[in-house]
Known about the structure:
globular
Amino acid sequence: MTSFDLPRRFAAEALGTGLLVATVVGSGIMAETLTHDTALALLANTLATGAMLVVLITILGPVSGAHFNPAVSLVFCLNRSLPARDLPAYLAAQFLGGIAGTIAAHLMFALPVLELATKLRAGPAQWFSETVATFGLVAVILAGLRFERRAVPWLVGLYITAAYWFTASTSFANPAVALARSLTDTFSGIRPIDLPGFIIAELLGALIALALMGWLLRPGITQQSQSVKAEP
């Protein structure tokens, strides 16, 4: 684990999650303002989010690990990469940072500080999409750390860029971001009543990824030495 003390890791997680949410919400507002083409608006939202993830993980990863996501922190706690005593601080930083990010986006675009979202995002297809999206995100992180640690910022940014488009839910894949997006009635919003289904699906996807990748990435057993010759 990083050598930075907990207060600085808390600040890094809050800052990173806040800037991530500000990017998601702010780019959605900008896109919705500039075009009535939903596909084009989603593309703009996607590119901004993927780019920001690369930046944030690169600059804040050495400080806190750059989780910015309660599901990721939970996985790292369960695989003992994050001490259990630090998990509550990480979760608090992520949720508080996410809400601050929504507030920042609203202030930049002269919107009410917070407003409950009205965009419906519910149903089995949406929930399954979130399970798949979070499964893929956690799998990418775990495999990236195992084989190509320096590429993780790009792997995560590219994965989320793709997942915006191949999942029906546009890949929230993050309980803190989902909560923050329930407080904006703009392009990226989600009704508060739809949050439980999303969060449960995200945690389920993360746990499935932890179980599968824990088995898949476990160092292989060395080949057994040649057996002795059989007696004639």
